[in-house]
Structures are given as C-alpha cells and as structure tokens.
Amino acid sequence: MSEIVYVRGDATVPSVKGVKVIAHVCNDIGGWGRGFVLALSRRRPEPEAAYRAWHRDRAHNDFGLGAVQLVRVAPSVWVANMVGQRGIRRGSKGVPVRYEAIDTALARLADEAIRLGASVHMPRIGCGLAGGKWSRVEPLVAGRLAARGIAVTVYDHGEGGV
Length: 162
Description:
alpha/beta
C-alpha cells in the first residue's frame, strides 16, 4: 500500500522519474475552459483536443460519467481525462461533482496506471469548480490508487495547502 504524498507545486509538470499520469476531472457536457484544464492546455494542446473529440463522438464511444480517456502527451507522460462531474453549474440540484463517477474513474485509472507502470499526479480533483470536498475524494484516491500500490502525488498550487 502506498500513501498519498502532498506537495506544493504544479500538477501539470510532475518532476519524478518514470511514467507519469496527470489525472483531473472533467464535466459530462463537453465544456473545457475553466479551472485546472486551463493550466493543462497552456502546457499541452492534446488533452483538450482529445476530450472535445471524445465528447463530439459520444454516441459511438464510452464518454459519460465515470469514463476515463488517456492521452499521451510525451513519451513517459499521459493525461487522464476523467468524467466526474455533471454539468458545470451549482444550483438547486447541488454541486456538479459526482463522487460515484470519480470512484469509477479512479478504478479504471488504477488499471491503466498499473498496466503502464505509472505514478499518478493530480490537483485535489473534483474540489475546485466541481464543488466537491477533499474529505470525500481523498478516501476514493487512497482506496482505488494508493491501496493498489500506485504512487500518488497531490499538488496544492500557490499559497493554499494541506
């Protein structure tokens, strides 16, 4: 069993050796333009292009809550687009985060990380614009990834922190 390591830094540029997967949560309506994805798109155009194409062709693929799309952006770096939020707005129906979808996506990500021999790097997924609580997401990350021996690093950007 691995543990989750917390660092202050930028999840878009993990500095460890070996194969790495940068994981983040996307919405289920094809929107890409706020939050962590902006930092990701500044570094690499491939994840956004792949996500938009995946959403566009959703009638013929697995796009939907709980799905994961792995996009290779460098020889040893992948990005995991994980669909874990319903829509983008907070309102009478609550926040967009869907913990069950994040759990399903993390289980799928774990299989891929093991297959690739990769470590996983992420911001506090589902806890920004999606409105989730890290106290609910952290056990999912621990149970689905760390419990299977996958090295996980969670990045806190800027002055905030653990």
